[in-house]
């Protein structure tokens, strides 16, 4: 009696008689988090695609005394709003769509009880990621809609977090720190460092926190949303070669193997090598790694895993003109279609309280 082999065909067909064993699930391992969207406060609903707010600051301290009997005159009275400025940004529309063919929706597919519902669920996650990547982008400038679609027109774009922190203010510019009579509301000098991840040191981080403290005078906790390379650089602060100046005044680097000392119970079997919280002299950084930090190239995001933002989370808002919604599109017989869309914009209340690790690599 012949044995049944895996690819055996019957005498009337060239196909196999073996039944397929297809598991009743679809495995997706992509579970990237969206730390900015998840943590940023939700501002009030937008009534316009352009939204504005005001910033102000105190005058510098005066150390001069006042002579007895000297009167103040109206002409010498100071202007209490000399440092007040107006900030603005635009909202941006985000959209994803899907269609399930009229034949496809009748099929019994493993791991999916309803292809349309499954597709909508995926698009909701994708549009959230679109929003996160846009807000965490290092170089998207605000843009007003102009022209017509298909004829060289451009849509509304919201200024990204990186643009708020690194763009130079100019009179009338939307989506960057506004200029005022005393200077501008961009990050304090030293709060944006160009030190590369490979050269990150404790002093680099301390200098960023010191600069922010110089502008705010507040010791507080910041959320640091950073790429994976920069996150590793923070962990490497506990190890690595040391640098010193030689007699010629140039930097040499030790090449000896670094030695790390750990205090732990002898009976533990867990080795921990991670820095998740950095406590400095002038603030605390809670490190939130993200895969959505990058530069905009065309309409795509180019990963810049060596950059990171220092964010006082109460000083940002995500404002919506339209929360994520699902709209049914006309079905002319080809199958059901849906549109998932939202309209949102980023508020950076006062960029002076922010910092950035903006190294080139």
How would you describe the overall organization of this protein?
The chain is α+β, with helices and mostly antiparallel strands and about 350 residues long. Helix content is about 15%, strand content about 25%. The strands form six sheets. The protein has a six-stranded mixed beta sheet. It is flat, with a radius of gyration of 28 Å. About 25% of the residues are buried.
Structure described in brief:
The protein has 361 residues and is an alpha+beta fold.
Q: In angstroms, what separates the terminal alpha carbons?
A: 68 Å
The biggest sheet amounts to:
6 strands, mixed
Task: Classify the beta-strand content into a percent band.
Answer: 15-25%
Main-sheet strand order equals: 6-17-14-7-11-10
Poorly predicted regions are none
Q: What's the alpha carbon Rg, rounded to whole Å?
A: 28 Å
E-strand count: 17
Question: What structural class results from the helix and strand content?
Answer: alpha+beta
Write the layout of secondary structure elements.
Blueprint: H1 35-39, E1 50-55, E2 85-90, E3 92-99, H2 115-135, H3 161-166, E4 179-180, E5 183-184, E6 192-193, H4 202-216, E7 221-226, H5 228-235, E8 243-245, E9 251-253, E10 277-280, E11 283-289, E12 294-297, E13 300-303, E14 308-311, E15 316-329, E16 337-348, E17 355-357
Parallel strand pairs: 6-17, 7-11
Antiparallel strand pairs: 1-2, 3-16, 4-5, 7-14, 8-9, 10-11, 12-13, 14-17, 15-16
């Amino acid at each position: 009696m012949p044995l049944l082999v895996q690819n055996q065909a019957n005498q009337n067909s060239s196909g196999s008689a073996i039944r397929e064993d297809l598991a009743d699930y679809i495995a997706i391992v992509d579970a990237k988090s969206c730390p900015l969207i998840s943590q940023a406060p939700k501002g009030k609903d937008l009534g316009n695609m352009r939204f504005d707010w005001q910033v102000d600051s105190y005058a510098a301290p005066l150390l001069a005394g006042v002579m007895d009997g000297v009167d103040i005159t109206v002409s010498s009275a100071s202007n209490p709003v000399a440092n007040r400025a107006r900030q603005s940004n635009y909202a941006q529309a985000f959209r994803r769509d899907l269609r399930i063919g009229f034949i496809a929706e009748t099929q019994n597919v493993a791991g999916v009880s309803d292809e349309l519902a499954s597709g909508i669920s995926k698009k909701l996650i994708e549009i959230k990621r679109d929003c996160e990547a846009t807000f965490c982008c290092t170089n998207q400038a605000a843009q007003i809609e102009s022209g017509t679609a298909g004829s060289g027109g451009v849509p509304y774009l919201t200024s990204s977090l990186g643009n708020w922190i690194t763009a130079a203010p100019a009179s009338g510019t939307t989506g960057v720190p506004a200029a005022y009579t005393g200077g501008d509301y961009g990050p304090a000098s030293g709060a944006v460092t160009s030190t590369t991840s490979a050269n990150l040191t404790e002093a680099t981080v301390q200098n960023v926190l010191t600069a922010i403290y110089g502008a705010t005078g507040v010791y507080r906790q910041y959320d640091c949303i950073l790429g994976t390379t920069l996150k590793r650089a923070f962990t490497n602060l506990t190890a690595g070669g040391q640098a010193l100046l030689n007699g010629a005044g140039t930097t040499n680097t030790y090449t000896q193997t670094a030695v790390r000392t750990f205090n732990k119970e002898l009976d533990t079997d867990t080795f921990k090598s991670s820095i998740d919280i950095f406590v400095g002299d002038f603030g605390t950084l809670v490190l939130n790694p993200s895969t959505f930090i990058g530069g905009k190239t065309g309409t795509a995001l180019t990963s810049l895993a060596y950059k990171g933002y220092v964010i006082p989370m109460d000083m940002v808002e995500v404002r919506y003109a339209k929360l994520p919604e699902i709209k049914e599109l006309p079905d002319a017989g080809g199958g059901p279609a849906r549109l998932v869309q939202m309209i949102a914009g980023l508020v950076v209340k006062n960029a002076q309280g922010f910092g950035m690790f903006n190294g080139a690599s």
